[in-house]
Design a protein that fits this description.
Order of helices and strands: HHHHHHH
Number of strands: 0
Shape: elongated
Distance between the termini: 19 Å
Largest sheet: none
Helix content: over 70%
Number of helices: 7
Radius of gyration: 18 Å
Structural class: mainly alpha
Strand content: under 5%
């Protein structure tokens, strides 16, 4: 059953309302992760970022090769984070509404988005805006984690609102850093093949 079908089935119920909130936050986090991954890949191909400085001579060429390898690693880690975040959204969309599990999927999406943001900070050479965006992403992940923690089960209105606000702040910070552009289409990220073990891990 698709996410929209789930929401239609549970429309008007408490679980349906909670599902909508956690789902929206998870999708937003996944979009952030995907946007950072695209930003880094674009920069890597253009030769910009911390690993794209020009080099001279044999020693410089060796340093350049090392920086290029590091940049490739940063891009790979960002892409992996985007993929894991997309997997969390997919697991949420494919399951029946359950606030505790839904909030954990949102938490996992935000945590992966924070990992992508860290790669964005590295790519941008710890620029002021990149550092601020990374901190905002970490704050969003922490707030999502608080909303999903044991005892709250994704149903605490205050914690859910705080997580929503932290996610919105993370989006705004990512836009200021240039990682996202308002109105730009979200990059499509394949969730890949998910094993039963991975599905359980993401949704437990």
């Amino acid at each position: 059953m698709s996410e929209s079908q789930h929401e239609e089935t549970c429309g008007g119920t408490a679980e349906g309302a909670l599902r909508a909130g956690h789902s929206a936050r998870a999708r937003s986090a996944a979009a952030r992760a995907a946007a950072v991954s695209r930003y880094i890949e674009r920069g890597r191909r253009a030769g910009s970022g911390a690993g794209g400085a020009a080099v001279d001579g044999a020693e410089g060429a060796a340093d350049g090769a090392e920086r290029a390898e590091e940049a490739e690693g940063v891009a790979w880690k960002a892409a992996h984070a985007a993929r894991v975040s997309a997997q969390a959204v997919a697991v949420l969309a494919e399951s029946d509404p359950a606030p505790a599990a839904d909030s954990r999927c949102a938490r996992n999406a935000a945590a992966s988005a924070a990992q992508a943001a860290r790669m964005g900070q590295i790519h941008d050479g710890d620029s002021e805006l990149a550092v601020a965006a990374c901190r905002a992403a970490l704050a969003a992940a922490q707030a999502a984690g608080s909303a999903a923690k044991a005892g709250e089960l994704g149903e605490n209105p205050a914690l859910n609102t705080a997580a929503d606000e932290a996610e919105a702040a993370a989006v705004a910070a990512a836009e200021r850093a240039g990682w996202m552009r308002p109105g730009e289409a979200v990059p499509e990220v394949s969730a890949g093949v998910r094993s039963g073990e991975l599905m359980r891990m993401l949704h437990l």
